[in-house]
C-alpha cells in the first residue's frame, strides 16, 4: 500500500501552503481540493495512487500537518465537543481548523464562542448548510457583520424546503428574527407561510409578541378601560384589546387549534405565559384586589377578567403530564391535549369578542 501522495499532488499542495490560505474543502465526488485565498478560489484535481478514501485520508493528514502541526491528521477526540460549544479555542486556532478539510472541524468553528464575522465567511464557504447558517446567526458578531444578510437570505430561500419539518421551521424562523437583519417585506413573507404551516408563527410570538405583522383591529371598547394606576388587570386588558394584542391572541388560537407536534404546543404555551407575565408575576392577593377595583369601575369587563385568569394559569407545564406519557403527534396528539387546550381557546374567544 502506498503511504505517499502522488508527486504531482504533493507539489501542488506545497505550493498552496506557501500562499495565504483562508479555508480548504474537498469535493470527494470529483476528487478535487478547493482552496480559498485572498485572490479567490484555487482548485487542485487530485490524482489518487490508491483507493480514493485512503488517498483522501493521506491528503487530510498532510493538510492537518501543515495547519495544526499534527502528522496523524485531525484529532478524532475533537468530535466529542464540537457540537457543545466547549472548544475554548482562540481565533487563530479556529482559523487553522478551516484548513484541514474536515466537516467536524468546520462545525467546531461554527459552534465556537470565538467565531468572528470573517471566520463565519470562511466557514460558510467550506460548508454552506442550513444548520450552520442557523448556528452562526445566533452570534451577535455575525448578525451585525457582513455575513448576517448572506445567511438570512439563504435561510429565507431554503425555508420552503423544510416542508413539514416543524422543529426546523421553529429554529430557522427564530434565528432569522433574532438576527434583526430581516426587512419588513421578508418578515411578512415568513409570516404568510403560517397560512400553510402554523409553526412559522411560533417564533414571532416568542421573540416579537408586540410587533406582529398584519395587526388586527383593536376592540372597540378599548377606550372604556378605566385608567387605574398600578392596576395589573387594567394594564393587561389594555394590552389584550389593542390591535397587537388581538393579533397575538388570534395567532395563538390558530396554532393551538391545529398543532402538528409537541414542540409547537410547548413553545406556544410558553410564549403565551411570557406575554401574560405582567399579570402572572403578581401574587394572588394583589391580583384579587386589582380585579375588584377594575370591576367596580367597569363591571362589563368581568368575562374578560375571568378569561385572563384562565390564560395566566397555563404554560408548557400544563401539558407536560400528557406529553410524558405519549409521543403522539398530529390528530392523536390534539385529541390527547384537548382538555388542556380547549379552555385556553375558549378564553381567547372571549377576549377577542366585540361587545
Please provide a written account of the structure.
With 355 residues, the chain is mainly α. It has 3 domains: 7-126, no CATH class; 128-197, no CATH class; 220-352, no CATH class. It is 59% helix and 5% strand. It is built from 19 helices and 3 strands. It has a 3-stranded antiparallel β-sheet, sandwiched between helices. Helix 11 packs antiparallel against helix 13, helix 11 (199-207) runs parallel beside helix 14 and helix 17 (302-311) runs antiparallel to helix 19 (330-352). The radius of gyration is 27 Å and the shape is elongated. The mean pLDDT is 93.
What's the helix and strand layout?
Elements lengths: L6 H11 L5 E5 L4 E6 L2 E6 L6 H17 L22 H7 L5 H9 L5 H10 L3 H8 L2 H4 L3 H13 L6 H14 L4 H9 L6 H9 L24 H10 L1 H15 L4 H14 L1 H4 L3 H14 L4 H10 L4 H8 L6 H23 L3
Antiparallel strand pairs: 1-2, 2-3
Amino acid at each position: 500500500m502506498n503511504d505517499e501522495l502522488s508527486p504531482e499532488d504533493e507539489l501542488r499542495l506545497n505550493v498552496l501552503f506557501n500562499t495565504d490560505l483562508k479555508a480548504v474543502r474537498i469535493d470527494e465526488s470529483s476528487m478535487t481540493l478547493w482552496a480559498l485565498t485572498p485572490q479567490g478560489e484555487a482548485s487542485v484535481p487530485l490524482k489518487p495512487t490508491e483507493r480514493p478514501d485512503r488517498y483522501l485520508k493521506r491528503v487530510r493528514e498532510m493538510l492537518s500537518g501543515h495547519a495544526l502541526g499534527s502528522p496523524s491528521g485531525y484529532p478524532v477526540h475533537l468530535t466529542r465537543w464540537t457540537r457543545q460549544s466547549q472548544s475554548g479555542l482562540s481565533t487563530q486556532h479556529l482559523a487553522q481548523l478551516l484548513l484541514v478539510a474536515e466537516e467536524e472541524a468546520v462545525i467546531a468553528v461554527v459552534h465556537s464562542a470565538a467565531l468572528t464575522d470573517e471566520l463565519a465567511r470562511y466557514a460558510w464557504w467550506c460548508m454552506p448548510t442550513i444548520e450552520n447558517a442557523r448556528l452562526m446567526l445566533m452570534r451577535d458578531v455575525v448578525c451585525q457583520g457582513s455575513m448576517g444578510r448572506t445567511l438570512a437570505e439563504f435561510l429565507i430561500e431554503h425555508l420552503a424546503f423544510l416542508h413539514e419539518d416543524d422543529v426546523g421551521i421553529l429554529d430557522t424562523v427564530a434565528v432569522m428574527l433574532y438576527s434583526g437583519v430581516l426587512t419588513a417585506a421578508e418578515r411578512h413573507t415568513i409570516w404568510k407561510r403560517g397560512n400553510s404551516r402554523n409553526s412559522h408563527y411560533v417564533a414571532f410570538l416568542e421573540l416579537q409578541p408586540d410587533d406582529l405583522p398584519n395587526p388586527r383591529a383593536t376592540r372597540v371598547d378599548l377606550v372604556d378601560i378605566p385608567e387605574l394606576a398600578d392596576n395589573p388587570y387594567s394594564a393587561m386588558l389594555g394590552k389584550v384589546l389593542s390591535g397587537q394584542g388581538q393579533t397575538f391572541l388570534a395567532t395563538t388560537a390558530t396554532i393551538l387549534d391545529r398543532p402538528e407536534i409537541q414542540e409547537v404546543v410547548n413553545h406556544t404555551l410558553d410564549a403565551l405565559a411570557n406575554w401574560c407575565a405582567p399579570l402572572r408575576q403578581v401574587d394572588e392577593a394583589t391580583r384579587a384586589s386589582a380585579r375588584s377595583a377594575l370591576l367596580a369601575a367597569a363591571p362589563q369587563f368581568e368575562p374578560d377578567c375571568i378569561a385572563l385568569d384562565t390564560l395566566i394559569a397555563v404554560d408548557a407545564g400544563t401539558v407536560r403530564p400528557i406529553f410524558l406519557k405519549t409521543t403522539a403527534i398530529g390528530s392523536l396528539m390534539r385529541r390527547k391535549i384537548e382538555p388542556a387546550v380547549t379552555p385556553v381557546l375558549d378564553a381567547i374567544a372571549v377576549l377577542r369578542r366585540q361587545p
